[in-house]
Amino acid sequence: MTATFKELTEFFRTIGADEVSHSDKSFLAHAIGVYNDLKEWGCDEDLARVGIFHSIYGTELFQGFTLPLDRRDDVRLLTGERTEALSYLNCAMDRTHFDAQVKAGGKGPYTILDRFDGTEIEVSDQDFEDLCTVHICDWLEQVERSGNWSYRRDGYRSLAERLGGIALASYDRVFANESRQSNVV
Taking the model in full, what pTM does it have? Predict the structure, then answer.
């Protein structure tokens, strides 16, 4: 049985991740924001939980907190096998390799280039689509606060177009705020 939402957030507190700054809020607040956004997008509970743990081991961009990889079993016990595996892949992915596969479109097989050990991990079409969803939802939750509008912009636009629906609508809504933010002096 996986942990309750309260137990998941308590885990962040016990490891000190709630005290870490992330895009002008706490790492925990950002993680909860991604979870809530994924739920609003209609994702199931398991995928929404990936939203909480999506950067628990650090990512290429976010290194403010990195749970050691030898703690993966602890996360797996809390979240379940698939949720931890997708969270790991989101942290481990080489973004350039990921963006190239998104841009290529079509069906798999897809691979994630693991930046921790340099190996390629084959993932199912569903896991790749779920990673696309988590990945863009994570960025849209924080881009306005970060002001880093140009970071991998083409890659994120490709993700939004690939997923369509609420992902594309959310991308357009969030990025419409760029011009408003730029006009504030």
Answer: 0.92
Name the residue with higher pLDDT: 91 or 24. Answer: 91
Nearest to 102 by CA among 163, 169, 159: 159
Q: Hey, how many other C-beta atoms are within 10 angstroms of the C-beta on 70? A: 7
Structure tokens at 52: 């909480």
- Indicate the angle between helix axes 153-163 and 165-183, nearest 10 degrees: 150
Pick the CATH number of 5-183 from 2.40.400.10, 3.40.50.970, 1.10.3210.10, 1.10.1660.10: 1.10.3210.10
* Percent of the chain at pLDDT exceeding 70: 91
| Tokens describing residue 151 | 């970071």
CB contact at 8 A, 57 and 67: yes
Q: Which residues pair with 21 in a beta bridge?
A: 26
Phi/psi for 115 (5° steps) reads: -70, -15
62's tokens: 């976010």
C-alpha span between 96 and 154 (Å, rounded): 11
For residue 14, what pLDDT band results from cuts at 50, 70 and 90?
Answer: very high
